[in-house]
Design a protein that fits this description.
88 residues, 5 helices, Anit_sigma_mycothiol_RsrA, mainly alpha, Znf_put, single chain, Mycothiol system anti-sigma-R factor
Length: 88
């Protein structure tokens, strides 16, 4: 990866180091603006941000799925059996 220097002084290294704070807007407006300006002009960093956003969508979607009733019942049964065998 080639490190690019922007007029704002933000470099790829800094942008990628603070990627998660940037995506979660957990930084000051000044820092957020500096990183946003860099990311909008840097193909490498923009691709990394896009990949991370896509990963978050996939994770969120997979965490929202509900296990089928039959699977949940099997898990509960196995946990009950396990608890009973430990208390003996």
């Amino acid at each position: 990866m080639t490190e690019e220097i922007r007029p704002e002084g933000c470099r790829c290294e800094e942008a990628l180091e603070h990627l998660y704070e940037y995506l979660d807007a957990e930084m000051s407006q000044v820092q957020l603006g500096r990183l946003r300006a860099h990311i909008e002009e840097c193909t490498t960093c923009l691709e990394e941000v896009s990949r991370e956003r896509e990963l978050r969508v996939v994770l969120k979607r997979s965490c929202a799925e509900v296990a089928p009733d039959a699977l949940r019942m099997r898990v509960r049964t196995q946990l009950t059996i396990l608890r009973q065998s430990r208390s003996v």
